[in-house]
């Protein structure tokens, strides 16, 4: 297989502020009807003294076509799963974002609906939210849920608030101050726990990638509020001891939190609710195929076992006799964690994805995601310079974490350089340097939507990079050269003397 | 599955078998051998589907069609507002290169998104009159929660004073964000005639625990807060921060908070090119002053301008990531990871299209139409609009004397007009009052029809 000679567009695009000429506009504002002008006269006269804007906002003055071209040019200097080649970014589940979902989510009967409309006028919206909620409970094995969180980390925050509310309700919040988190966890886990007022306690992983049970036993106690875990874990390994872990935590009165970032491996195969988890969040922008949008919006619904249902945010969608309504009736609720109902348009896409595949299709998607990742892991684990640490002989789930530490020692080529060289072949890099317990980590998650040919192309590129590392490392170290720009000065980007966060400050910098 | 699925290229039985053979397994279930038998899910998930694309389209459209068509956009605001979204905005955010990309962790291949977000930050700064903006938070409400926490970290104090007419939704979210951090919220009274913040009450409630004073401008009930300089002064005299929440459209017409000494400015970016979508996705604006100690306490992502290593070209990168959860873990300024990037992109496109002239004109049109509607409604018998004697931007209160808010609402809804939001539960002291909103989307004809139907309902 020959690798592609990829070349990303580079329009040398100016900033939007550097385009345009005085007086140009990109949009025609509707005019006022004469009767309104007659009735109101000059509105600026009515603005209270001192509150009228006297200096216009320094926005660009550009025509419609200039704006359009500018952002299309910029889009061509970007890389998406639907426009790229393969996007094996571990932990992020970059699967195909179905086009029909976008088309249907652009329907004016979803886009032009106000969140405070009368329930009677939004039965369609409430219906799909209700059905999505039911499906979410089925897939996760939970009893009740809130769709309000706008992202995974937002869901985590809500989950920890629920843990807090539960212990407070039992009069134990004063003593239950600790959330236990394995050393392989996502960074959001400890950040969310601390934000909700808890201390975090780290437990190490053992050689097969699972939680060290002895270490866990030594840290649990009456001070334990809960444990946050993702299973399969961030090494892509399913922790077979999950029931024992849940028992250890439950025995001391703690709750089990499931970080659903890795749910894509196990839909229809096993459920967090059956593993002993009390709370789960799911990233709809991962497992349920909604686009990541360059960093958001996502959605992070939270499911709970019955013992926590009283504390869920309001409102929730209820149904009786085929009529849907918002219910605010939860006296012990933690309140609201989003101004309205969460990222509803994202939820519509997730709902569409769910019913497109159905139960059998969701299971098949998970199975193929696992097959794809093991295919890559098996083909690369013995290639010179790479290794597959932890869990010797174990199958991986939806992702696999390679280490390039041998290559680094022998050639000076690091995981970072490998990821940059992949870009030169038109392939998005895996997640690097995560999980923290793997040196020179390359976390690879191909997802089920990549064809065998794309997997082979990725494998070929990784082999080629190994070859180059040992024969001509400079070729790898100078990458990327085929992207819009080469390596950039990240120190300058964050240095107090040179940091520039807006056009306004740029204009004032002594350059 | 019985036949290959279009989303699953390796679901073709021969391909699947070939791959299994390559890795030495005879059944997929071997890959799941680490899952203990008692945990394996038996049977099939009970969810609707599967559907082919053609069936799907019918099914989903059928569901959405159950939402009513209204004769004009609803007269609802409060934090999400019906504004027009130019076609170019939707065109850009539909580009697969933007839409289907992840957070730009590989800057060399994602300069497009990075530059766009840098432009977003810059455009927002110009509009708000501020110097530094982050790349977005989820919405106005969560932005308020983050701002309160940031103020508390900066001042090491624990009380936030808020205008008593704050949006109850936002207040609820703020409490969910701040109570675990030991921050308490205290309401400051207002002038019952004008709605303006009671400066004397504010001074009385300021103490050495006050981390910040928060106002919304325009307020939740639509009137413009006038004594902003005095409020800023009171806050700063006690070494507290001044946080202001805004509807960005109003800043075409109104003085931006950066010009009245706000320290942190938040707001809802939805009206800048994002559809209402039943309240999400939204766009939390978040800006502060250009002070290193403030910037270090900012939540969320920030994009900075730098150059390539060999120094020949401009380049854009995520900056100060040591504040963020993926580096800093439990010491991060916030747990936020996914934000509202695509909505921020939409707003960058929107503000570029508008330009200084467009945003000014738009704000004038909106305020004029709202002013027209307010006067006409206020002349109906048994109605008072607005309740507060102050300048209103695009929302205003309507108090019903002869009928209840709900009777008026149902009467309008019968004629497929959606009136304002009831404030009866949120602010019982205002009695039978609703919050109406008018934007450029409401023509004179729409407003006249609202008034005439409302008149009939009130008489009936």
List its traits.
heterodimer; A: 511 residues; alpha/beta; three-stranded antiparallel sheet; globular; B: 460 residues; four-stranded antiparallel sheet
Give a verbal description of the structure.
The complex is a heterodimer of chains A (511) and B (460). With 511 residues, chain A is of the alpha/beta class. Chain A is built from 19 helices and twelve strands. Chain A has helices spanning 34-40, 43-46, 64-76, 99-105, 108-111, 123-140, 152-169, 188-195, 213-219, 242-251, 272-275, 284-287, 344-380, 405-411, 415-424, 452-471, 473-477, 490-494, 503-508, and strands spanning 144-146, 178-182, 199-203, 224-229, 255-259, 279-281, 302-304, 316-320, 323-327, 400-403, 431-432, 441-444. In chain A, the strands form three sheets. In chain A, strands 1-7-6-5-4-2-3 form a seven-stranded mixed sheet, with helices on both faces. In chain A, strands 10-12-11 form a three-stranded antiparallel sheet, with helices on one face. In chain A, strands 8-9 form a two-stranded antiparallel sheet. Chain B has 14 helices and 13 strands. Chain B has helices spanning 13-23, 53-64, 87-93, 96-99, 111-128, 140-155, 168-178, 199-205, 228-237, 292-295, 325-328, 341-378, 405-414, 444-459; strands at residues 132-133, 159-163, 184-188, 210-216, 241-246, 264-268, 284-288, 303-307, 314-318, 383-384, 395-400, 421-422, 433-437. The interface between A and B is large, with 213 and 209 residues.
Average pLDDT of chain B works out at 97
How many runs of DSSP E, i.e. beta strands of chain B? 13
Tell me, what's the shape of chain A? Answer: globular
Query: Strand tally of chain A, please?
Result: 12
Judging from the principal axes of the Cα atoms, what is the shape of chain B?
A: globular
Kindly name the structural category of chain A: alpha/beta
Strand order of the largest sheet of chain B: 1-7-6-5-4-2-3
Largest sheet of chain A: 7 strands, mixed
Helix-and-strand structural type of chain B:
alpha/beta
Radius of gyration of chain A: 26 Å
Distinct helical segment count of chain A: 19
* Pair of chains with the largest interface and how many residues each contributes: A-B, 213 and 209 residues
Radius of gyration of chain B: 26 Å
Chain-averaged pLDDT of chain A: 96
- Enumerate the strands of the largest sheet of chain A in spatial order, edge to edge or round the barrel: 1-7-6-5-4-2-3
The N- and C-terminal alpha carbons of chain B lie at a distance of 61 Å
Question: Which spans of chain B have pLDDT < 50 for at least 5 consecutive residues?
Answer: none
